[in-house]
Amino acid sequence: MRTMQSNDNGFTGLEAAIVLIAFVVVAAVFSYVVLGAGFFTTQKAQQTIHTSVEQASSTLEIVGDVYGTGSGTGSSSSTIKYINFSIALAPGGTAIDFSKVVITYSNATILETLASNSNETTVVTQPTQGSWAITAVQNPPGGDITNVSCLLQPDEQFQISCEPMYPIIINDQITIEVKPAVGAAFSITRTTPAAINAVNSLY
Asked: What is the largest CA-CA distance in the chain?
């Protein structure tokens, strides 16, 4: 009875080279796929970080004081009608389109979203009740005060006036939140004085 015996005498160097090349090609393709996936993941991580920084960092800052105005006479029963402040871009901040900005007013019991009284070409003297407006522009691009827009640019300042639906009373902690379309919201928290005059600095 004959037995089957293996014989590899016919396994030549050429066949070994082909097998080796096949292994090298497979390893190269696998390495390319792994490296490509790694580069893609790294790019996505960088994009996420840049987007997070852009969303988390506010590009706005207050210029000067925040003050309230109304028909106050210095008594404890007087109220504040308007909250006024000037706002500008923080150093290195990008331009912000205030036609897309949302401003909210809140205190311990009220939260309201103020409507916008501003448009692309005019500056409003005062907002109407329950709204906000750009009431003045300082340092417009080119120095042309007649050619203003809702786009807040570097070195430019917008004077904002807000009139909530309800008058603001004494010793009230209020918060004005400015929410750009891109970037973090900018909050202004102040407390009204114990006696309200016609013009009041808020701290």
From this structure: 124
Average pLDDT, the chain: 81
Burial track 116-154 (b if 16+ CB lie within 10 A, e otherwise): bbbeeeebbeebeebbbbbbbbeebeeeeeeebbbebee
CA distances (Å), origin 92, targets 64, 158, 178: 19, 17, 18
Q: Which residues pair with 202 in a beta bridge?
A: 66
Q: How far from each other are the two terminal CA atoms of the chain, in whole angstroms? A: 108
**Measuring CA to CA, which residue among 157, 60, 81, 165 is closest to residue 115?**
165
CB-CB contact of 49 with 55 (8 Å): no
On whether the CB atoms of residues 111 and 130 are closer than 8 A, the answer is: no
Cβ-contact 159, 83 below 8 angstroms: no
Query: What whole-number distance in Å separates Cα of residue 29 and Cα of residue 27?
Result: 6
pLDDT tens readout for residues 153-190: 998 999 999 999 998 999 999 999 999 988 788 999 99
Question: What does pTM read for this prediction?
Answer: 0.70
Cα 99 to Cα 203: distance, rounded to the nearest angstrom: 28
